[in-house]
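Need a sequence for this fold. Nothing fancy.
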């Protein structure tokens, strides 16, 4: 009878350990999933790409050259050459 009692006690302890271990695993998995969701929600949205920033740079450079030309800092030839260079011509 003593052997049967030891076997039964071992079975109860083993079953309890399995149940507790399963519960701990489920809690850890749920916590990891919540952390992943929180990290995904906290990630910043990608910034939209500006359309044709090179064109804006070219226009700004040409406007600067035109201002210098109107102030007399550039001759007509220098202005035309610099404008062609800015436009890649």
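Here you go.
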């Amino acid at each position: 009878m003593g052997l049967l009692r030891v076997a039964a006690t071992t079975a109860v302890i083993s079953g309890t350990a399995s149940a507790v271990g399963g519960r701990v695993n489920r809690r850890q998995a749920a916590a990891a999933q919540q952390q992943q969701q929180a990290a995904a929600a906290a990630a910043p949205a990608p910034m939209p790409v500006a359309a044709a920033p090179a064109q804006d740079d070219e226009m700004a450079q040409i406007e600067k050259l035109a201002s210098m030309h109107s102030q007399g800092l550039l001759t007509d030839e220098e202005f035309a050459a610099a404008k062609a260079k800015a436009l890649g011509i």
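For context: The mean pLDDT is 78.
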